[in-house]
Amino acid sequence: MSASPKPPLLEVSNLLKHFPVRSGILIERTVDHVKAVDDVSFEIAEGETLGLVGESGSGKSTTGYCVLQLLKPTSGSIRFQGEELTTLGREELRRMRREMQIVFQDPYASLDPRMTVGDIVAEPLVVHSIGSRRDRTLRVRELLDVVGFDPGFTNRYPHEFSGGQRQRIGIARALALSPKLVVCDEPVSALDVSIQAQILNLLKDLQQDFGLTYLFIAHDLAVVRSMSDRIAVMNKGKLIEIGPAEELYAAPREDYTKALLSAVPIPDPRAMKERKAARRKLRHALAEG
């Protein structure tokens, strides 16, 4: 008798997030809604990386924030380890957030400039009342070492470090509570190309060492392909295509996915010129359709 398959770690069903458009000076009223996320559904298995890709404004980051309940969905279901997140109370959600963390896009804005590196990484432990002061100090040094950051710099401030070093601090903070799911919201888009490769390799190593599950959000299909087991493509709030990374990269079904792929640089000037011409035609066709 074969064992039943494990349920997915994260299940998102029919997710909607609409933002009201308000008008009026003395009396403000809602005149329309922006459908940032429109009926999105996907699953992520434990230990898997799902890449969520799309252009700016496609709704991918909003989807990630809704998963973490940093934004309350308009409707839909988000189940984490079988538990419905959208109906949890404040204390229950606070407990569940120990299992879910985020690495933000901007390593400059995401770290409090008034806090030392040690305080930044220890903050989740303090918020959740984990360990003594000495335990937290040891944990911070351990985490910084794990992400390749010198633990001797715990008393320095974020402005003293480069973008790549700051992102390592942010990753260490995300790992402080030993989460199962990490939402990576364009974690390398603000970094130089050489530093991007270092951070991506670090994230891969951490996933293998700690059994992490990633929702990896990005606009660059080349980056997403290198990180992901499966890729989901979003456009104008909708999920238009999802499948295994290599399969989607080799034979995309949707024209929008083809347009995204055509923007990925290749080391052949002639082929790149032909690809740009094809992309212009494709975008024109998409705009007319």
Structure commentary:
The chain has 289 residues and is α/β, with parallel strands linked by helices. 39% of the residues lie in helices and 25% in strands. A six-stranded mixed beta sheet has the order 6-7-8-3-9-10, sandwiched between helices. The protein has a four-stranded antiparallel beta sheet with strand order 2-1-4-5. The radius of gyration is 21 Å and the shape is globular.
What attributes characterize this protein structure?
single chain, 289 residues, alpha/beta, four-stranded antiparallel beta sheet, 39% helix, globular
Brief characterization of the structure:
By secondary structure, the protein is of the alpha/beta class. It is built from ten helices and ten strands. It has helices at residues 60-67, 90-96, 117-127, 133-146, 163-175, 193-210, 221-227, 245-250, 255-262, 269-288, and strands at residues 10-23, 29-44, 49-53, 75-80, 83-84, 100-103, 181-185, 213-218, 230-235, 238-244.
